[in-house]
Description:
By secondary structure, this protein is an all-alpha fold.
Amino acid sequence: MHAGARAFLIALLVTMPGLFLSDHLADAAQIVSLVALVAALLTFVEYVGDYPSIIEFRDAPPFNRIRFVALFVTVLTLTLIGRGEAHPTALSLLLEWIGANVGDMLDFPYSPVRLMVLVASEEMTPHHLDMIRTSAGLSYLVSLVAISFFIVVVRVLDWPIRRGAFNFWVNLPLFDPTVGKDVLYRLKRDGHVNVALGFLLPFLIPAIMTMASEIVDPISLTDPQTLIWTMSAWAFLPASLIMRGIALSRIAELIQEKRRRVYAQAELHAA
């Protein structure tokens, strides 16, 4: 039942912009439906089985739940704002007002939001620039809130051992502790790399998009669905990497503490 619910939520997330925005093409709707079906199937297969395959921290809530809620809220918020362009409601106007204020607050020199606004082409109207700023500000704000909440869960609620023992193999199926250097060193290294990359990506992605636009046709941020997924990915991927880095560093701390206790007990028995 839990696997089916997760699969349904993933499918809803993927199809949400197409469901709310009525101006999508039939071919695009078929592609979105196919992607939603594949994503739901993969999620169902992953969670219905007893053994892990690719999803990390599967049995260490609320890590994946925080990430999913952050992405879901981002996509839903931007979708409602996009729908409000053609069918304004009190909720869409409120969200757009909040996004505009947040975007203006975060749009300062060399900020990730400013860099994303600079990606806009010269053909875009001031309204399109405002929509990019609003979407970037809201997306970045949701990612910051998700990261902050996860830090509170780790430090205050003692994640991931508050609900029981942490199963290393189930929660890190792609991490082989028998390969390479000491597992503690590798966890700390991977944690630091993930946090650093997550911090840099909001700055690097706009630069990469700008350089790519000189070689190939740039993506059109004037299209509502393209804008939604671009901004969601731009904010979610770095936040996800930072959360993974924090989680790996936390696991390294637990292993280090356990080793310290074992060594202390060994010295006590030897004495």
